[in-house]
């Protein structure tokens, strides 16, 4: 869906809705992510757990993969993440904000490096009542990226 940019509340609502599709069979903790471009296009994803825990996929990675396919990571400008338990009424609940894990922060930093834009990360509670915002550079100030790889290549060449 491209057009106008979404409000912060709308982007959080999209992330909360994505969490309702999570496969959180083991932890019961559903996480959704909505990624927006400058022109308002959105890709979403949710976490997908696996009995072999380390094979699970975070919502942010799921959404980043969808974003790459839909419009490319270089167009990513904002990311909203929300998580909690799905209540008996079928809505996402929880009052604590959910922030991306370290691995997801690294992946968001990769999108930042591709775009040259310091991506805003909105972290929201499951119920959508609490949120905070920071740039990916603030959340991951010493990220590893392309520049470090170039430096290693330069050192190897001599």
Explained architecture:
By secondary structure, this protein is of the alpha+beta class. The protein has one domain: Cytidine Deaminase, domain 2, CATH 3.40.140. Helix content is 34%, strand content 23%. It has five helices and six strands; from the N terminus they run H-E-E-H-E-E-H-E-E-H-H. The protein has helices at residues 8-19, 59-70, 102-115, 136-139, 146-157, and strands at 30-37, 42-46, 76-86, 92-93, 120-125, 131-135. Strands 1, 2, 3, 4, 5 and 6 form a six-stranded mixed sheet that branches. Strand 1 (30-37) and strand 2 (42-46) form a beta hairpin. The longest helix is centred in the last third of the chain and has 14 residues, at 102-115. It starts with 7 loop residues before the first helix and ends with a helix. The relative contact order is 0.16. The model has no long low-confidence stretch (mean pLDDT 94).
Helix/strand layout:
Elements (H helix, E strand, L loop, with lengths): L7 H12 L10 E8 L4 E5 L12 H12 L5 E11 L5 E2 L8 H14 L4 E6 L5 E5 H4 L6 H12 L1
Parallel strand pairs: 3-5
Antiparallel strand pairs: 1-2, 1-3, 3-4, 5-6
Number of helices: 5
How would you spell out the order of helices and strands? Answer: HEEHEEHEEHH
What CATH architecture would you give? Answer: 3-Layer(aba) Sandwich
Helix content: 25-40%
Rg to the nearest angstrom? 16 Å
Give the CATH H-level superfamily: Cytidine Deaminase, domain 2
Number of β-strand runs: 6
Largest sheet geometry? 6 strands, mixed
Structural class: alpha+beta
Beta-strand portion reads 15-25%
What number of domains? Answer: 1
CATH T-level fold name:
Cytidine Deaminase, domain 2
Q: Report the principal-axis shape.
A: globular
CATH class category label: Alpha Beta
Uncertain runs are none
Query: Between the first and last Cα atoms, what is the distance in angstroms?
Result: 49 Å
Average pLDDT: 94
